[in-house]
Design brief:
Layout: E1 23-24, H1 27-39, E2 41-49, E3 62-68, E4 71-75, H2 84-90, E5 94-97, H3 100-109, E6 116-119, H4 120-126, H5 134-142, H6 162-173, H7 175-189, H8 192-202, H9 226-246, H10 256-265, H11 270-274, H12 288-300, H13 322-325, H14 327-347, H15 351-354, H16 357-365, H17 373-387, H18 391-414
Parallel strand pairs: 1-4, 2-5, 5-6
Antiparallel strand pairs: 2-3, 3-4
């Protein structure tokens, strides 16, 4: 084998520059962290670890911070009633996060709100990187590898093992440098203003309220009949109440598959329920009386109270139904999607970032009444703004939507 044929060695594994800091769990230590961060300079890299897959709540069980001139800090938010010293220190500073929508809700819950932010994942999307995970961006842009073997551990564990803490600290170790490189690339590509608008919009992010979350039970499509659907709903809600009370993830009580099997079989007593093949889980027998009561509620429910298979929402129907319900709207959607896809490739921006798919569907299902291009253009722009589209998105996509609306109507007239 020649030297040219030798495999390229993997990039070096990233290690902590300043060693592993202690976990902050006392008021004096928290005050020291606040003072150090306030004395630092530049943006603050922030990350949070939750116990997804283990706990019902989405609270933060560890908060990591790093700022130039201050260093890296690991704060245990469970140890404090208030993080006010940290809140004061962060006031006015730009936050750097990766995938901000994942961490902002749990940071907001402990009183931390960004004055400004930079999302490295979203920056990567706007720049057209095909993969925007933190480890991928770090390897591509910084030439180092991030160990990810502790990404799915139970962060509610106390005390937290040192290898987990090192993994957590490394996530903020890279963010300041990564933000600098991505910021330069956004400026060079002419996308910096787009990013600023996106980041400003993210500051007000709130997770969407869950409505009829039971309908997302895995395997619910196999359930036949409205009464069986009611059984899925009653079992799901009973499990959710138990999970909330115990603060454990619902799937650790009984899995979705057990709910679906019980709803299909509709057993009427404890013995037949526990004898149902496939009804299992840690809480299957422990909470058997709760499951039986849920199934009885479904069995005794009035017909009028049974859930429907396809509930009516406040938005447009699913796209596959458009051709039957409104052929003109279906043509609008098809043309707009094709044009947005082409523009997406041209700009190297994912189509869903160019315009939120829900905004696209809502606008094209019920567009403004005017069919005069001069009047239609500002009307479409206003409609998109009302949904929450950012200015850069409106400027780039309004002409596409206007064209789709007018040409779909023209085809109708020609027919």
């Amino acid at each position: 084998m020649s030297d040219d044929d030798e495999p390229t060695p993997p990039p070096p594994l990233l290690t902590l520059r300043d060693g592993l800091p202690p976990v902050v769990q006392t008021e004096p230590a928290l005050a020291d962290v606040g003072a150090a961060i306030a004395a630092g300079t530049g943006p603050v890299a922030i990350d949070a670890e939750r116990a997804s897959g283990y706990r019902y709540s989405s609270r933060a069980y560890l908060i990591q911070l790093r700022r130039e001139g201050a260093g890296t800090f690991l704060v245990d938010p469970i140890a404090f009633e208030s993080l006010e010293p940290l809140e004061r220190a962060l006031d006015g500073a730009e936050w750097i996060l990766h995938a901000a929508t994942q961490d902002l809700p749990c940071l907001t819950a402990v009183g931390l709100h960004p004055s400004g932010l930079f999302d490295t994942e979203l920056a990567g999307r706007l720049l057209g990187y095909p993969k925007v995970g933190l480890a991928t961006l770090v390897e591509e842009l910084l030439g180092s590898r991030l160990a990810k073997e502790h990404s799915a551990v139970d962060w509610s564990t106390r005390p937290l093992p040192a290898p987990w803490l090192e993994y957590a600290a490394l996530d903020v170790e890279v963010l300041v440098e990564l933000r600098g490189l991505l910021g330069e690339k956004l400026e060079e590509s002419g996308k910096a203003e787009w990013a600023r608008q996106e980041f400003d919009h993210l500051r007000g992010f709130e997770p969407a309220a869950r409505t009829e979350a039971w309908r997302r039970t895995s395997g619910v499509h196999r359930v036949r009949g409205r009464r069986a659907l009611a059984a899925v709903r009653e079992l799901w809600e009973a499990r959710d109440q138990i999970a909330a009370q115990r603060d454990v993830t619902p799937g650790r009580i009984i899995p979705d598959s057990a709910i679906v099997i019980a709803a299909q079989a509709l057993p009427t007593d404890r013995e037949s329920l526990l004898g149902t093949k496939g009804f299992h889980g840690r809480g299957a027998e422990r909470y058997a009386s709760r499951w039986v009561a849920a199934l009885q509620r479904a069995a005794e429910m009035d017909e009028a109270d049974l859930p429907t298979r396809n509930p009516r929402g406040n938005g447009p129907p699913v796209p596959r139904a458009w051709a039957e319900k409104d052929p003109v709207a279906a043509r609008r959607l098809s043309r707009a999607r094709e044009a947005i896809s082409a523009r997406s490739e041209e700009l190297s921006v994912p189509a869903e970032n160019l315009l939120t798919p829900d905004y696209l569907r809502r606008t094209l299902w019920t567009p403004p009444a005017s069919r005069d291009a001069v009047q239609l253009t500002p009307a479409v722009a206003d409609q998109l703004a009302g949904y929450g589209a950012r200015r850069w998105q409106i400027e780039l996509t309004t002409p596409i939507l206007v064209d789709a609306i007018l040409t779909a109507e023209d085809d109708t007239d020609a027919g």
